[in-house]
Amino acid sequence: MMPEILRKSLILWVPSVIALAAMVALGDLAIFMGIIASCITLAGTIAMVNLILPNITYIKEYWAAEKIGDANVTSRITNAATIDLCRTIDQIKRPQKETKNEKYEHPEILNKALSYLPYPLLIFDSQRYVTQANQAAIELLGPNIRGADLSASLRHPDVLEAADTVLEGKRNNLIEFELSNTIQHTYAGHIIHLGGTHGDSLAMVVLHDLTAIRRAEKMRADFVANASHELRTPLTALLGFIETLQGPAKRDASARERFLPIMHQQATRMVRVVDDLLSLSRIEMHEHAVPTQHVNIKTAIETVIGSIEVEAAAKEVIFKIAIPEGLSIVVGDKHELDQVFQNLLDNALKYGHQKSTIQITATKAMLDGKDAVTLAIKDEGEGISSEHLPRLTERFYRADTARSRTLGGTGLGLAIVKHIVNHHRGLLAVESIVGKGSIFKVTLLLAAEVANESF
Ligand SMILES: Nc1ncnc2c1ncn2[C@@H]1O[C@H](COP(=O)(O)OP(=O)(O)O)[C@@H](O)[C@H]1O
Ligand SMILES: [Mg+2]
Fold first, then answer.
1. In the predicted model, is pLDDT for residue 68 greater than 70?
2. Which of 64, 107, 135, 300 is surrounded by the most beta carbons within 10 Å?
3. Which of 317, 340, 388, 398 to mutate for ligand 1's pocket (most ligand atoms within 8 Å of CB)?
């Protein structure tokens, strides 16, 4: 800044120096006085230029700044007159900016936005002929909807009646209806009057797919109903026994002897249901954090077998484990994988035949291009018929409800297994032949260093 100030000052100083030199030459001013006067005028000029020049630079920057009232520039301005000037610049620049925005308000842009809108949108005239349809509508209802009657694409009496009402200009309408192109879907249809009068009007319908929301609502309602039912059944039995023991069988020692074990069994069943429900909600809570521990599945399975060996011995069931060294360490959550093996081995034993064998085999697999292990638990039981297989992992779903209840099942075991396997980003598969038995397969990622060492 300094050389610039000096240069400008020297230029402005020149006329006064010429005037003083002329006065000295004409003898009107002594040389010494002339020199002093020149120095004073130079100092004065530098001071003035120093005051004005930075403000001119700020104003230049302010004008060039992209934003109106750019804080980077305004924060450096202290001179009141310059601030006033900047305000005037704001007023000049503002309309320019607004004119710039006009190019974004072109109808083309709106058309483009509507065509890419992820919700199906159809515009139809007063004869109910579709005049325009966006991409999402064409994908949902087919390429021939334009130019056809609305009833050809949205064949639902409620939609057509609502469309007619809107076209008559009565009021906009929001309806919920079901369409079944390939599978049944629930939609909300917003039908809106766009303009025109009776006989010459336009309206549009925008569809919003509610299927997932309605399904989730139904699942939640079913779940609450099922959970209440599961708890109510043993609770009713318990209340019945308590009333009998308080009333008619008050002093009947033999009745007490008979009832207490059943009451204990019913209470245990309730505890099991509550424990399983809590397990499910805990897994759901941590669903987003992928497990990272190294878990030895061979040891985990042996521990579970140890915990059910009394029941196995009573049924004369034997376990055969074939898990090679290199396939025994997986990436997972120890506690959750214990639950998986507990539930699957428990089922194999519960639904397996007397004097049968349960085989647990590990084979190498791939999961998303990474080394994995598939653990198969094969029983020789009654099997599960194919119509039940897709629903087996739903909460409280049982292939044979009465049998599951007698065996102390909650109907939540496989739902827990499925959730845990999903949490591990693994795979769960079931194969079964009625009368022969079932195979439950769980695929999990092998721990990387172990996989590298072994293969
Ligand atoms: N190994 C199996 N063999 C035959 N049926 C099975 C087997 N495992 C599960 N099932 C069926 O799947 C249903 C759901 O299993 P699960 O969720 O563990 O509930 P439960 O508490 O009844 O064992 C069971 O009720 C049973 O009908
Ligand atoms: Mg079970």
1. no
2. 300
3. 398
Average pLDDT, the chain: 89
* Residue 294 confidence (pLDDT) above 80: yes
Question: How many A from CA of 182 to the centre of ligand 1?
Answer: 31
Ligand nearest the Cα atom of residue 418 = 1
Overall CATH class of domain 289-454? alpha beta
Q: Rounded to whole angstroms, what are the CA distances from 50 to 5, 43, 75, 83, 134? A: 6, 11, 19, 18, 64
Could you tell me the distance, in angstroms and rounded to a whole number, from the CA of residue 398 to the centre of ligand 1?
6
Same topology, domains 108-209 and 213-284? Answer is no
The topology (CATH level 3) of 108-209 is Beta-Lactamase (3.30.450)
pTM above 0.70, yes or no: no
Smallest-distance ligand from the CA of 417:
1
User: 414 CA to middle of ligand 2, Å?
Assistant: 6
Cα of 443 vs centre of ligand 1, distance in Å, is 19
What confidence tens digit (pLDDT) does each residue in 52-61 have?
A: 888 888 888 8
Ligand 1 within 6 A of CB of 378:
no
Taking the domains of the chain in order of start, what are their residue ranges? 2-102, 108-209, 213-284, 289-454
Give the whole-angstrom CA distance, residue 92 versus residue 107.
Answer: 28
User: What would the mean pLDDT of 61-79 be, rounded to a whole number?
Assistant: 71
Q: Is the pLDDT of residue 455 over 90?
A: no
Pull the structure tokens for residue 172: 């906009």
Q: What is the pLDDT of residues 400-409, one digit of tens each?
A: 888 888 888 8
Backbone angles phi, psi at 446, to 5 degrees: -80, 150
CATH 1.10.287.130: does it fit domain 213-284? yes
What's the pLDDT tens digit per position in 300-346?
Answer: 999 999 999 999 999 999 999 999 999 999 999 999 999 999 999 99
Q: Is the CB of 416 under 6 A from ligand 1?
A: no
CA of 347 to the centre of ligand 1 (A): 6
